[in-house]
Prior knowledge:
The protein is an alpha/beta fold. It has helices at residues 36-40, 42-50, 75-85, 98-106, 122-125, 132-138, 157-161, 174-188, 207-214, 227-233, 248-261, 303-313, 335-345, 356-365, 379-387, 391-398, and strands at residues 15-19, 54-58, 89-91, 112-114, 143-146, 170-172, 194-198, 219-222, 265-266, 270-274, 284-287, 297-301, 318-322, 350-354, 373-374. The strands form three sheets. It has a six-stranded parallel sheet with strand order 3-4-2-1-5-6, with helices on both faces. The chain has a six-stranded parallel sheet with strand order 9-8-7-13-14-15. Residues 199-202, 205, 224-225, 242, 298-299, 323-324, 326-327, 329, 355, 357 line the site of adenosine monophosphate.
Amino acid sequence: MKRLSIRDLPVQGKKILMRVDFNVPLDNDFNVTDPSRIVASLPSIQYLLENEASIILMSHLGQPHGSPNPELSLAPVAKVLGTLLEQKVIMAPDCVGQKVKDLVTALQPKEILLLENLRFHRAEESPGAKLLFAKELASFADFYVDDAFGCAHRKHSSITEVPKFFPNRSAAGFLLEKETSFLGDLLESPERPFYAIIGGAKISSKIGVIKALLHKVDAFLIGGGMAFTFLKAQGKEIGNSLYEADLVSFAKEIIEVAQTKGIPVLLPIDVVAARKMSDDAYPEIFSIEKGIPFERMGLDIGPETIEKFSQFLQAGKTVLWNGPLGVFEFTPFAKGTFSVAKILAALDGATIVGGGDLIAAINLSGVAKSMTHISTGGGATLEFIEHGSLPGLEALIANQNEDLPNINFMT
Ligand code: AMP
């Protein structure tokens, strides 16, 4: 069965319920500090405006755990979106309920209504058997569009349940299409050599993706907190560094399988370490051969590792990078991540970067524009690499041409 595209829907004069990922960072004054995710949704929104649809946008923001929290209101997003589009974005007081229904009923073609944070309702993350929340959301519109790539790995009401009420009337937006076709093509036929740089805090959150990539890449370059479990597996002294004792055998297995396949696994040969993780920490460089002293934590890859990674990467025709190589949030430990970002930016090959924290780091490093593709989804990218699909995509396919529950439309 085929998944529909937003282009396949006869949207003119219709109401479109579109799931977007507006989970953006806010500062203490509730200003949006990085509007990348809002900007990424513009092509679908502009397409719907040009085609004279009424647009109902829905998203989550942060973790309000099922109850309203004014600090996690989407109102600041409505402001930014309005500025970007140079038109008013109507902010709903909630995402369901009579007041919202009234706003939906009054919504005219080319108008935009942004529903309040979906996660103010427990049913968003725990759909329940009767799907009442999903059904109410679905009752607002004629068509459903999913453009929230960053959330497509979540089995939440707005992603996997709402489309059940739109048989043959739900479709993927431009961002979802772009992200998945890019990653799909990449994994099917990457230009080789294909290298994966994996960093971030823990191995535990990336086990599946590491296993999946083991069958696809020509080399692994490992940094970040997770490198220390690999180093421990090789019997190195890692001091107080982050380390997952229960995953040492997994790390050993990965190294062994990679060896039998002839896939190099490049681990740090030196690190920047400190007694504490802060901006005023005193950073020191230790070689892995000699070991990290007991009271120090390895918090970034060291200069020799940067050089080694740099030389190796020069041959890369495709480089996939997920997870920062150090605690870049603190200046003394940002150099590894920023340096590798610059190396990739100058590379004569495709560079694909993903993961929420890493995107922030790449933006800070000032080379974001030089990457071939920056994925808006961290977890979604990892799951797509691991499984080759996502629950959000499956939901769009599952209900095509099937006799599934329908609803009474308001329009
Ligand atoms: P992840 O979400 O797994 O990609 O992890 C991202 C986080 O990993 C960032 O917030 C980094 O600060 C953190 N990180 C990177 N390197 C290290 C390290 N050596 N030790 C502890 N945390 C790290």
